[in-house]
Amino acid sequence: MFKGLAETPPMGWNSWNTFGTDINEKLVMDTADLFISLGLKDVGYDYIVLDDGWMTKERDENGNMVADPKKFPNGMKALVDYVHGKGLKFGLYSCAGATTCAGFPGSRGHEYQDARTFAAWGVDFLKYDWCDTENLNAQGAYETMRDALAKAEYPILFSICEWGDNEPWNWAKDIGQMWRVSGDITNCWDCEVNHGSWSSWGVWKIINMRKDIRFAAGPNHWNDLDMMEVGNGMSTAEDRSHFAMWNILSSPLILGNDLRTANANTINLLTNTEVLSINKDSLGIQGFRVSNKDDLEIWVKPLSNGSWAMAFINMSDIDFDLNYDWQASIIEDSIYNRKIDSKNKTYTVRDLFAHKDLVNSSQNLKTKIKKHDVLLILVEEKN
Ligand code: GLA
């Protein structure tokens, strides 16, 4: 596996959540331009990833994958060059099965050939799906593609997408830099949408489904909670909580909205550098839940220099009056052996969405949190 491609969780954009297979080169070029003009690149978003549907329904006479000439009249190499010309990176999608989830050619039996094609185009990121994989062993299939990418000798970040079915957090650390932990996300707070043979999941369904695998995350191997739904129709409060949680959980931050129509609130949220610094913290420790009582979820993430990020989320439909007593308990991370020793030490407290300092931990933390909203704070030891 290529080393050092994801010291912190990868950041970027993926076409699937909003566009499905309705993708083309204009969309990619516009998105690349917007990465620059909206300031997304400046805060660290750098991968532009085309998901399923970029290829023709058949391989060519030599068995090569071909970019659909109707969607990409100038070919994939020219598009990759355009994205690279903006100082950004480019990603593509394929599948471990013979066909992709949308019925296009997958890489089964063509792994080395496809890896060479992607490398020749200058592709920097490969999302590798899991449809049509009957009788394939997941670990083996992903190892095959990892080895094929290595052989092609162009550094490509390998994003594993087998939906958590085979528990990749137990075996994928040396295979890919990130692995999906669930079936597809959908644009809601806590719903399940049943599609018959599979379901897609709201934000809190994914969080709760996989709250016990934080041991597996770290630099260059991240639990991927899926492309984000920020800006796709949830309330402002829900988008804020969703984004806060993906940061607390050290998930890759892959945008899933249409940047051409995104409003200023959405862009301000996604480019909040105080929040993003939680995700980019060099320790790369994934956060965990401290409690969920009385409709309040409390989550923390240890950061370097003894600091912590802490999120209080109001799960109820009415305002929540927070009155948090720092003296009442010490928060301990038993896996990484850290604690917020607020009984014996004083910590400064900063609200990362309001961009303001709050009273320090010698006094109770009091505020109103609206329905499905979050108070996200940085907790630092006072010198
Ligand atoms: C699967 C993946 C999605 C997306 C689609 C494309 O469902 O989990 O993220 O890539 O396939 O068909």
Task: Provide structural commentary.
The model has no long low-confidence stretch (mean pLDDT 97). This protein has 383 residues and is of the alpha/beta class. The two termini are 42 Å apart. α4 crosses α5 (138-152), α7 (236-248) packs parallel to α8 and α7 (236-248) runs parallel beside α9. The longest helix is centred in the middle third of the chain and has 15 residues, at 138-152. The chain has helices at 16-19, 25-37, 75-85, 111-121, 138-152, 203-209, 236-248, 264-270, 273-279, and strands spanning 11-14, 47-49, 89-95, 125-129, 157-160, 178-180, 192-194, 199-201, 222-224, 253-255, 288-293, 296-302, 308-314, 320-324, 331-333, 338-340, 347-351, 356-358, 365-369, 374-381. The strands form five sheets. An eight-stranded parallel beta sheet has the order 9-6-5-4-3-2-1-10. The protein has a six-stranded antiparallel beta sheet with strand order 11-12-13-20-17-18, covered by helices on one side. The chain has a two-stranded antiparallel ribbon with strand order 7-8. It is elongated. Helices cover 23% and strands 23% of the residues. The protein has two domains: 11-279, Aldolase class I (TIM Barrel, Alpha-Beta Barrel); 288-381, Immunoglobulin-like (Sandwich), CATH 2.60.40.1180. It contains nine helices and 20 strands. It binds alpha-D-galactopyranose (GLA). Alpha-D-galactopyranose binds at residues 16, 51-52, 93, 100-102, 129, 161, 163, 184.
